[in-house]
Amino acid sequence: MLTRLESPALSEAALFAALHPELAAWFRRRFVHFSPAQLMAVPEILAGRSTLLSSPTGSGKTLAAFLGVFHDLAEARARGALPAGITAIYVSPLRALTYDLSKNLQQPLDELGWGWLRIGARTGDTTPAERARQRRKPPHILVTTPESLTLLLSQPAWIPALRETRFLIADELHALAENKRGALLMIGAERLEEVGKPLLGVRSGHPTTDDSALPPSLIRIGLSATVSPLEAVAEFLVGPGRACRIAEVTQRKPARIEVFSPLRDHAYPAAGFTASRVLAELGTWIAQKRTTLIFTNTRSGAESIGLRLKQLLPALAKLIEVHHASLDRTVRLEVEDRLKRGELRAVVCSTSLELGIDIGAIDTVVMISAPKGVARALQRIGRSGHSMGETSHGVLVASNINDLAECAVTARMMERRELEPLKFTENPLDVLAQTLVGLAVFESVTPDEAFALVRRSHPYRALARAQFDRVLHYLAGGGAALERQYQNIFGKVRLDARGCLVPAGPRVTRDYYQNIGTIASESMVQVRLGRRNLGQVEESFMKGLRVGDVFVLNGRTIRLVETRLLTAKVAAADSSVPTVPRWYANKMPLGSGLAAEVVRLRTQLAEAFAGPAPVAGRASADEATARRQAAALQILCDDYRLSARNARALTEHFVLQARVSVIPTGAFFLVEHVAQAGLVHYFFHSLIGRSANDALSRIIAQRLHEAKGGNARATIDDYGFMLTVKPFQMLTADEWRPLFRRAGAEEALRAALAESALVKWQFRGVAQTGLMVPRRVRGAERGARALQWSSEIIFEVLRQHEPDHPLLAEAYAEATQRFLDLPRAIEFLDQVAALPWDVRTLERVSPFSFGMFVSRIRETMTLEDPETTIERLFHEMYGAVRK
Question: How far is CA 33 from CA 12, 285, 394, 851, in A?
Fold first, then answer.
């Protein structure tokens, strides 16, 4: 049912002939030729086949999808059968994309003179007046988000317009497939399939557990520049058992990928040199280029670099902006519009501009630190030279020596387009609960029909009936622990006389409409400068500030004037020294494919350093060492295209590790321990990524507690984890190995999480998505304190009295499968059982463990302190060894 296309179904001449004449003539004038992506995908869309199109950024994917839609509408108009309702729905993961696309689609229509074709955007920002106009006269093409589509599907007034929908276009599919918004969209697609038809299931005589469906009437089009594996993603798009064409365009857009580092001959240069050189280089690029887009991996990093660039380049300060999700929407839209008009020389952002906003003026993308994933790096570099025929230019800037190795590996994998496989969200029970309430509000289906409907979507293809029934039990009255006393509060649905799901009362319908979606409310404080909203910071950060304190937001230094509930008034403080806010968003973990390649690099260099044994004599030993280092340098320069200076710095780092300890590879498991100031630090070199190491460290710390008592302090990064213990908790090598057993790992993690706030934190979002703790009541946002208080009370009740409650189970799955990476940690436990161990007692922390050792210190440092402190520690530890 899933078919990979080997070649286009039509020649270019035949495709021009197949298109509506006005559309074909316009395309010839504007573009002359079809791009390979368009030539591959458009014939399939014209033939009415669902299609997944994977091709590089700037290859014309979006236009390929809409050529089919434009053609369909033009042909219908020529027949005198132009639909009054919605022909195509375009869904984007970002409101910014909907805002961008609705404007960009209007340009070809204006050039075609097709004023009869209506385009509308519907998001949470759409005004009530515009919503009313759309309801009276629906657009032919609706640009929207998963949440707004779900809302429309539950409103009877919109059903006549939705009955005529033929196309569902899901853009940036990779950004939806891995999260709950994708699950919400795929359920929406199934509901869209059924609009105007009886639901499949018992009523129509189909088995309720059948995963297959009748041939779909909806043509689904998925678009992504960076997605793998294609067959699994195609099935996610159309649902199991349905047909889909897979169009993968392997012709690569011209791209230039460079690795830059301020490091030269030594891993840790003089204090202040690293940051100042990076900023100096950024300043040079900004001065030479039209527009430079600078990505950081954290919002605090974007704020810091944005501020320092403005200070470094005062003449260009007004042409440098910061963009991230905590900034107010009006601020972000203003930056995006100025960017598109070519008015800015630089924009510094975190992840907010990764996706496909059309910003063609950008000619260079700079990534500060490795972006932790090949797909993410390709997505970012695609923001430059966005138009067809232009060359993308990306620079990976390594901020430290480990980052340099990671950047080198990332660049190599980018050139080969070796993408990490997507991790799909499976059976999110809170989204299921929200879906069932939506079906009860409008569809009035039986439980069997609802079960059959959700099973036809990819996220719920393996949903067990027992899980489904437990969610229904919760919706009937809150669950076993709550229904006796609080059924009238928590009851959402009931069965009517026909055996159909219906709302338990009018309040349920109102609350459902006001709380659709999967994005949980956070404790954020709105920051206002005069009458303008600048953005938001975490409430916990704001609590630590006093009136008069200065911090950074939107690349500006501002002084706190006053706080009221969840609002803070600030004033400009341009000449003051700031305290950069510490954002609490997750640090991105290293992708599994990248981790494997870093291990491969380590192994290559370790083998080069091993080399043939030297003959007797000091001179011969020195010559052998020089030959080995030369072999390592050649690998780094030839295979990874590093400059000679950066290759020497990385080689020195590996040489130093070999002198102090040993270079860890995939052939053994290295454990190092260092005693210091009455504590013992154990370093476990498990290169499996931050999230997996987080899970693994909790398992081992829990088992250590059970074996020796006391608590161990865990410090994690992508390359391993450190446990800091008291002397009475020390273990021998033979005692450590049983703690890394596979059996009982899930139970150990559950015990560790019992005393952790992580599951409680995740439950807060799950309870909001699952409609147990509504974000909005009677049209008003509930305060963050009220949401937190309600969630914590319910969490404690369920934890004590109904530990298998579906929303509690979902919170645990969220914590262990998505925040932590328990599956990858367990995979490591399976592998480490067969590996030899190398346990070493060291006098000093090894260079490969140094990053973990100083990470706690770094968290407490201010803007300028890290470089000085880290360099001092480094030279104290390794000064004598390096001589």
Answer: 8, 34, 27, 52
CA dist 508 and 21 (Å) reads 51
Distance separating the N- and C-terminal Cα atoms of the chain: 65
The verdict on whether omega for the bond into residue 43 sits within 30 degrees of 0, i.e. cis, is no
In angstroms, the CA 129 to CA 113 distance is 27
Whole-number Cα distances in Å, 825 to 27, 692, 749: 52, 5, 11
- What is the DSSP secondary-structure string of 648-681? HHHHHHHHHHHHHS----TTSEEEEEEEETTEEE
Report the phi/psi class of residue 596: left, alpha or beta, with left for phi > 0 and alpha for psi in -120 to 50.
alpha
Q: At what angle do helices 806-813 and 784-801 cross, to 10 degrees?
A: 110
How open is the CA angle 566-567-568, to the nearest 5 degrees? Answer: 130
Of residues 153, 772, 152, 778, the one with CA closest to residue 507: 778
d(CA 657, CA 406): 17
Q: Is there a contact between 339 and 362 (Cβ–Cβ < 8 Å)?
A: yes
* Element (DSSP H or E) covering residue 876: helix 865-882
For tokens 């019992």, what's the residue?
Answer: 754
pLDDT at 593: 82
322 forms beta bridges with: 348
CA distances from 771 to 270, 425, 449, 522, 793 (A): 55, 19, 22, 16, 15
- Cα(195)–Cα(302) distance, integer angstroms: 45
Three-state SS for 122-138 is ECCCCCHHHHHHHHHCC
Amino acid at 739: L
Calculate the CA 735 to chain-centre distance. Answer: 38
Q: Please report the beta strands in 812-883, taking only residues with DSSP state E, as ranges in sequence order.
A: 837-841
Q: What is the reported pLDDT for 81?
A: 94
CA distance 340 to 332: 12
Number of Cβ within a 10 Å radius of residue 45: 26
The low-confidence residues of the chain, meaning pLDDT below 70, are 95-100, 196-216, 251-254, 264-275, 355-360, 386-389, 521-524, 538-546, 554-555, 565-566, 576-588, 611-621, 755, 778-789, 856-873, 879-880, 882-883
Listed in sequence order, the residues at least 6 apart from 504 whose beta carbon sits closer than 8 Å to its beta carbon are 491, 492, 493, 494
- C-alpha dist (Å) from residue 393 to 239, 255, 287, 772: 37, 6, 16, 48
| The two three-digit tokens of residue 393, written as one number | 């230019």
**Number of other CB atoms surrounding residue 51 within 10 Å:** 28
The two beta strands, 141-144 and 119-122, are: parallel
Element (H, E) at 2: strand 2-4
At residue 95, what is the residue type?
A: R
Q: Which two tokens stand for residue 746?
A: 């899930």
CB 544 within 8 A of CB 346: no
d(CA 481, CA 67): 54
Give the three-class secondary structure for 829: helix
Tokens of 841: 């007692």
User: Beta strand 255-260 with 244-248: parallel, antiparallel or unpaired?
Assistant: unpaired
Selection from 616, 450, 434, 576 nearest residue 511 by Cα: 434
Using CA atoms, how far apart are residues 836 and 766, in angstroms rounded to an integer?
A: 42
Question: For position 535, what pLDDT does the model report?
Answer: 80
Whole-prediction pTM = 0.85
DSSP 326-389: TB-HHHHHHHHHHHHTT--SEEEESSTT-S----TT--EEEEES--S-HHHHHHHHTTTT-STT
One-character DSSP codes across 710-723: S--EEEEETTEEEE
**CA triple 451-452-456, angle to 5 deg:** 115
Q: How far, in Å, CA of 770 to CA of 806, rounded?
A: 10
